[in-house]
Inverse folding.
């Protein structure tokens, strides 16, 4: 069954390609790894965030808002994507960025500043205590100057943002039919839960015979079960949509599957093995991952395949490339790369 989508603003260049990583799959020795290139959504290389923003920004415009407000880490892909979207739609944007250090004008932060986003920096401890008070102060300040703010949570991961990857699931349904494949698993990085939640709902709605897994880049499986479960319940309550064999309890029909244990030193920090894998994929497949999201998630998926823990017997696995390569520039010192030589 296909849901009735709420209004959306056309921002992403879709459908994005789905293709086989033939050389890497051969090197791995199976299963076949397919990559959904959502890093190619266009729109300033904004990756998966654009799919969510299509629905969030449509709501912002419908409410007559002229300023977008959101938050994230100092190298947040979502914040950068929101800043790009705001400027393309003629809106203002205010970002609340988490950092305990004097930020370097690099990676995503450079793009934020290039776009002229208003930025408030807060400590990690203050961020962890919640952004509600900060948001309200900013909303009131903008209102006093005649502006109306549309606030979004980190990653645009709420019941509105879920629609982005519900729609992407319908796109995957067409991809699988076109390619004649029936993947047993779909894997994505999960940091705020919106992509994993949308895919989980979408797989149910469109009858994809694949289990959706989020590889945690922060927090743990228990956190994502609670967070995504709450987002799905809010989605169901707001849109009154029913699916599954038991339409009165969508939460019991959707299984939230998260792989943890691959966070490494912490959010935004990766192990040497992740940087090595990113380098290997770049040279073997021309595929560019990042050390915060996709590199960690791909590493976790590969380790699970090698251990036989979760993907044993699978023929085809789809990895959702959610983008984010700009953040790699801010961590380029961690890559083991050789310099060229001066030609005679």
């Amino acid at each position: 069954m296909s849901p009735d989508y709420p209004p959306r603003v056309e921002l992403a260049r879709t459908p994005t390609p789905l293709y086989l990583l033939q050389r890497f799959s051969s090197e791995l020795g199976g299963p076949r790894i397919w990559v959904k290139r959502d890093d190619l959504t266009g729109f300033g290389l904004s990756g998966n965030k654009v799919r969510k923003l299509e629905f969030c920004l449509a709501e912002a415009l419908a409410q007559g808002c002229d300023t977008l407000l959101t938050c994230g880490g100092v190298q947040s892909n979502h914040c950068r994507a929101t800043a790009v979207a705001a400027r393309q739609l003629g809106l203002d944007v205010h970002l609340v960025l988490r950092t305990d250090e004097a930020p370097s004008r690099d990676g995503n932060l450079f793009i934020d500043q290039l776009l002229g986003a208003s930025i408030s920096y807060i400590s990690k401890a203050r961020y962890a205590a919640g952004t509600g008070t900060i948001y309200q102060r900013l909303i009131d300040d903008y209102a006093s100057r005649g502006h109306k703010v549309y606030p979004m949570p980190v990653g645009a991961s709420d019941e509105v943002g879920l629609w982005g990857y519900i729609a992407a699931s319908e796109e995957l349904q067409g991809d699988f039919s076109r390619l004649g494949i029936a993947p047993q698993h779909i894997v994505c990085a999960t940091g705020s839960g919106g992509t994993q939640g949308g895919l989980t709902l979408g797989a149910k709605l469109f009858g994809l015979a694949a289990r959706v897994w989020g590889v945690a880049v922060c927090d743990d499986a228990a956190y994502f079960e609670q967070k995504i479960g709450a987002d799905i319940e809010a989605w169901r309550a707001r849109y009154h949509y029913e699916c599954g064999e038991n339409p009165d309890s969508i939460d019991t029909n959707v299984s939230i599957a998260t792989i943890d244990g691959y966070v490494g030193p912490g959010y935004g920090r990766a192990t040497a093995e992740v940087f090595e894998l990113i380098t290997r994929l770049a040279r073997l497949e021309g595929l560019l991952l990042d050390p915060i999201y996709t590199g960690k998630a791909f590493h976790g998926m590969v380790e699970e395949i090698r251990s036989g823990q979760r993907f044993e017997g699978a023929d085809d696995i789809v990895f959702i490339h959610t983008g984010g390569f700009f953040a790699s520039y801010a961590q380029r010192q961690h890559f083991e790369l050789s310099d060229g030589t001066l030609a005679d």
Remarks:
- The mean pLDDT is 92.
- Residues 49-156 form a domain with the Rossmann fold fold (CATH 3.40.50.1100).
- The beta strands are 18-20, 32-37, 67-73, 92-98, 118-122, 149-151, 185-190, 211-216, 257-259, 316-321.
- The chain has two domains: 18-47+158-334, 49-156.
